[in-house]
Amino acid sequence: MHRSRQTAPALLLCALAALAGCAAAVRPPAVAQAQAAAGALQLESRSKHSGGKGGEEKLNLRPIIGIVSQLGDPAPKGHSYIASSYVKLVESAGARAVPILCDMSKEEVERRFKAVNGILIPGGAQDLRPGQPFFDTVQQLVDLTIEANDNGNYFPLHGVCLGMEALSVAVSRNHSILSDYDSENLPSPLFLTDIAASGRSRFFSALPPQVVEHLQTRPYAMENHAHGLAWTAVEENPRMKEFFDVLSLSVDRVGKVYVSTMEAKKYPISATQWHPEKNAFEWTPDKDIPHHPDAIEVTQEVANFFVSEARRNFHAPASQDEEEDLLIYNWAPSYTGKHKYKGEEVDFVESYFFPLAPEFKRQLAAKRQARQAQRAPAAAAAAEE
Ligand SMILES: *[C@@H]1O[C@H](CO)[C@@H](O)[C@H](O)[C@H]1NC(C)=O
C-alpha cells in the first residue's frame, strides 16, 4: 500500500487518540491481564495445533474431504461434475475439498483416498450397477473405508441421496435393493427410530438438541428422490441388517415409508437420503428448498458433524506440493443455476467440471465398438432364421 508523507502523521495521531480513548475506558490492570492471558492462550493453541496435550484427543486441524464426481448433466460432453454445494458444505465447517473423479484409475483413487480424511458421496443421478464408473468408484471407496477402519484407522464416509443409494448397493451387493418413491421436491420431517431417539446414534447425538427437534417437527430435510431404501429391504438383506442402524424414516407423497437417515453400527459411515447441503447453498426457485434460519442451521450442524469425524483421521498428502495439486482450488466453478443456462440441470447454483481422462474416453469408445460389433452378427443371424 502506498501512503503519502503528509497522511502518515495524521494516521498516527488518529491511532494515539483511539488508544487514549481506550485507556480512559479500561483500567490498566485489565491490560496486564489481557496480555498475560493472550500469552498463555498462544502457547496453548500452538501445542494443540501440534496434536494436543495428554488426555485430550489428538485432532487433525487441516482436514481434507474427497468428493466423488459423476457423469451427465450439467457436465458438458467429455466431462464429469461436482455440484459446488457439496464443496461449500465441507468448507463451511473448516475442511477443504479434493475431487475424486469417477473416471480415475483404481491406483489414483487409492492415492487420493490416502491423502484425504473423509469421503463425501454426493447426490445426483447415476447408473448404480457394477461396471459403471461412478458406482465402481463408490464401491472401491467404501471397501477402502471399511478396510482402513478395520485396521484401526478412523476414516469417515457420508452419502447424500444418490450417495446413500450407492452405499446401500455397495454394502448389500444387490443392485435391486432400492425401490421407487414419489419424493422429488418434497422437504419432509424425520421420524426417529428408537436408536436415534434414545441418543444411541453418532449422527443425531452430534447435532444440537434444537436441530434434532426441528428436523422432527418441521419439513427441513430436503428430500428430492425417485428411488430409496425400504426398511424391509434393510431387514431382509443380512449384509445390510448387520451393517447399518436405521436412524430415521420419512414418508413420500403416496404414504410409502423409506429410510431417510442411517449409519453403520461399527464404522464412521453415515448417510442421509435428504440433502443437508441444499438448505444453505442451493437456490433454484423451481424447488421448495427450506431456507428458514433454523433450516440453514441444519446444513451447518451436519457439516460440523461430518468434518468433526474427519478431524479424527490423519491421512495426509505426501507433500505440500501434492496437497496444492489435489485441492479443488485448481478448478473454478461455473454458474450453472443461472436462468436459461444451456442444459437441463439448473438445480445446482454452481458446478465444477472436470475433463475426462483420455484413457477413460478410449475405454468408452472401445466398449461402444464392441457393442456395435456384437449387434452386427446377431442381426445377420436373425435375418437368416
Ligand atoms: C435384492 O433386494 C430386493 C429388495 O429387498 C429383494 O427383493 C431381492 O430379492 C434381493 N435380491 C437378491 C439377489 O438378494
From TrEMBL:
GO terms for biological process: tetrahydrofolylpolyglutamate metabolic process. It catalyses: (6S)-5,6,7,8-tetrahydrofolyl-(gamma-L-Glu)(n) + (n-1) H2O = (6S)-5,6,7,8-tetrahydrofolate + (n-1) L-glutamate. Residues 365-385 are annotated as: Disordered. The active site is at 161 (nucleophile), 275, 275 (proton donor). The keyword Hydrolase applies. One of its GO terms (molecular function) is gamma-glutamyl-peptidase activity. Keywords: Hydrolase, Secreted, Signal. Gene3D superfamilies: 3.40.50.880. Residues 1-25 form the signal peptide. Its main location: secreted. Its EC number is 3.4.19.9. It holds the Pfam family Peptidase_C26. GO terms for cellular component: extracellular region; vacuole. It is found in: Secreted, Extracellular space. Residues 371-385 have a biased composition (Low complexity). PROSITE patterns: GATASE_TYPE_1, PEPTIDASE_C26_GGH, PROKAR_LIPOPROTEIN. It comes from the Eukaryota. Belongs to the peptidase C26 family. This is folate gamma-glutamyl hydrolase. It comes from Chlorella sorokiniana.
